[in-house]
Amino acid sequence: MRGVVMHAPGDVRVERREDPQIIEPTDAIIRLSASCICGSDLWPYRGVEKLDGPSPMGHEYVGVVEQVGDQVKNVKVGDFVVGSFVISDNTCEICQAGFQSKCVHAEFVAATIGTQAEKARIPHADGTLVATPGQPDPELIPSLLAASDVLGTGWFAAVAAEAGPGKTVAVVGDGAVGLMAILAAKQLGAERIIAMSRHADRQALARFYGATDIVEERGDDGVAKIKELTGGLGAHSVVEAVGTQEAFMQAVGATRGGGHLGYVGVNYGVTIPGFDLFLAGIHTLGGPAPVRRFLPDLIQLIWDRKIDPGKVFDLELPLDQAAEGYQAMHERRATKVLFTV
Amino acid sequence: MRGVVMHAPGDVRVERREDPQIIEPTDAIIRLSASCICGSDLWPYRGVEKLDGPSPMGHEYVGVVEQVGDQVKNVKVGDFVVGSFVISDNTCEICQAGFQSKCVHAEFVAATIGTQAEKARIPHADGTLVATPGQPDPELIPSLLAASDVLGTGWFAAVAAEAGPGKTVAVVGDGAVGLMAILAAKQLGAERIIAMSRHADRQALARFYGATDIVEERGDDGVAKIKELTGGLGAHSVVEAVGTQEAFMQAVGATRGGGHLGYVGVNYGVTIPGFDLFLAGIHTLGGPAPVRRFLPDLIQLIWDRKIDPGKVFDLELPLDQAAEGYQAMHERRATKVLFTV
């Protein structure tokens, strides 16, 4: 099969990779319908995260089940499925508590599988994949693909920040995850949603997804502006969807005492001054999102056309043009790139 | 009046200080019945926290109301009262959400008032002080004093860690606050309470307050031991009651994915590696405790002799011997020192 392999920063190639095989009786093989590039794929592309030799890329995926192991019961050959970017058994104590990304069998799809490809082996298929109610209309595929990570992650961030009725939510970061957090905050009933963004095109998308206010200031000025908009108190709920030092501390500062910060930006190299966090007196919850918890509901919302997360994809390319897709996201010519397979 | 003043690290004196006066109509003047030394008072005593000139000391207090401003309604002259170590109006939006330590009128008693003294002016008396049901038996005074900070803080830590029925709670730190967190976890119905302690006397007190297990290991070894005791998962609820780098990261490591960390150790100089916290996937809540939220319930529990937090005081001295009290806590000859006034 063909699949994307990163050889070095900036060096992405579509190559022949071995066809995946069933190894464990809990595995499934899926033929991918679409895949995409995640913001976190840019870390190795930019040389921020070190590569250990050539790496298969991709961890977001939708597709059709082609083969299942003997013990797989919840999905069958021919099902159209959406999977989380973290493998989970969905039965252990941690999964049952809703934290499937910390499952005792957790494994990052990014680390070994690589779904920017024609096919993929998905371990713990019953606990990782969710079948859609039927074969989807092609127009729904981008949205279903978004559920696999970017929507699921933004949704988790909004839930972690306890966005809900009567709440003012501030979202730091106007990338795809930040935009999905806005969509989620709106669905969760937030009263006011402040997008922190300085790009006109993303501001427009933020408003489309439910932002009621835009703040262009960053850092201490951004915090001051959020305070000004919230009677001096700060937002009830803040989402951090960037992963830099400045963004993280901006998010801490924007949260009111006793408020909730949900952080999902992959934060390599960020160091949090403990005493600043202590004095802030806030709840925090973050990390790789337990997307599997939300998948059944998110699929239904998409199926019923109540949400349209697929709009975050602003560039669609055939898999063979993967290198151009990475370049476009790296140069910020695209917010998020979808690959047709 | 007499009051404790710290002039420099290691230099604590009992001096004449001016008698406090009503300044605002929301003030009360109380005559202190007892006061004590907090672990955080040792920071400037040890030179870790810088002093800006001679500083009145003390922020934990119980006593009798001697005078009230015109607008004070909830406490009256003659009432025996317990107050929080943070001033709060108890009416603002933040207070109403239960985060009185982040009140819009918040002020640290430690910073300006100094309750290791004969009298103190308490601003926002209605929102800060709680009257006991009557004049307490002398034997209850240590416990009521504990409610002012050390019990209230340990209680908050246990609540922040979501200690409760069915939960395994690990407590990092066997100082007075850690011991009070154990008491709180027990009252909140925790199934299993693991005290991380290597001092025999404190282990005994930990067991008295409800610890079911003792772990002597620290750092990575301590984390490994907690995992071993919890089927490899980590504790549902972890309390950090020390404030050092090692203790904080030990607490992060001991918390299961999706679990809750409550941190109340004053953590000057701690830097939290953001990516480690991200990968841990845990809830955190910490900071100066909103003691005022818990005071009415804690006073009632003490009044009804259902809890005995006063046992954390293992040295009682007259105020005039304050210097000896500081020395004893600094040298760890005492866990917590009570001053009779």
Automatic annotation (TrEMBL), chains A, B:
Signal peptide: none annotated. InterPro entries: ADH-like_C (IPR013149), ADH-like_N (IPR013154), ADH_Zn_CS (IPR002328), GroES-like_sf (IPR011032), NAD(P)-bd_dom_sf (IPR036291). The keyword Metal-binding applies. Pfam families: ADH_N, ADH_zinc_N. GO terms for molecular function: oxidoreductase activity; zinc ion binding. Its cofactor is Zn(2+). PANTHER family: DEHYDROGENASE, ZINC-CONTAINING, PUTATIVE (AFU_ORTHOLOGUE AFUA_2G02810)-RELATED, ZINC-TYPE ALCOHOL DEHYDROGENASE-LIKE. It comes from Spirilliplanes yamanashiensis. Keywords: Metal-binding, Oxidoreductase, Zinc. Residues 25-126 form the Alcohol dehydrogenase-like N-terminal domain. This is IMP dehydrogenase. The keyword Oxidoreductase applies. Residues 176-286 form the Alcohol dehydrogenase-like C-terminal domain. Belongs to the zinc-containing alcohol dehydrogenase family. Coiled coil: none annotated.
